[in-house]
Amino acid sequence: MVISYYFLILLVLILGVGAQFLVKTAYKKWKKNPSSFGVSGADAARTMLNSNGLGHVAIIEISGQLTDNFDPRTNVVSLSSEVYHGRTVSAVAIACHESGHALQYACEYVPAKARASIVPVASIASNLWVFVLIAGIFLSMIGLVYVAIALFGAVLLFQLITLPVEFDASKRAKSFIRQSGWLTQKEIGGASAVLRSASLTYVAAALASVLQFVYILGMRR
Known about the structure:
By secondary structure, the chain is mostly helical. It has helices at about 1-30, 40-50, 80-85, 90-105, 110-140, 140-180, 185-220, and strands at about 60, 70, 75-80.
């Protein structure tokens, strides 16, 4: 049991590190490639939002690398400095991806709304489940183990719902980039590579959680 647990931990680490390596490699490669028409990430996001009737959605600059996000509670697209000011393939791809999330909420894309609705529960569950599981094991209380399973199940559900949300945002981004004419065919391929590698991080996280969930289910015995 101990050996299988350590093997699981190792596998989870490999999945996570491998996915992060791929996204950082793709991002670094294409951030060295200027976009043919010199459009910045902020300009790309603003144009994509405005063309879809979302002029009220704000765009702000934030610190960090690959910290870009969209907050549906405040209707704000936050772009890291490199993406906000960058006039590169990576910047355009990521900026349009985050704008894609804003479009999802505007058109009431069901998976996006479902994910937003379980964020509070998933956030609490992700911080609590392991302590409940440990307590259940040490106190030999199967009831607590079942509670831990339910809590982790909420985390897993959140990650699984995240997959179609991320894939759809990337699909919207690539569609708009093609229509805009900002990038050459080769650069569009680069933008797709950046978005695809970013999606793999969510796939890896979901797969790792599935493996953990199966392992925890086995602890009922």
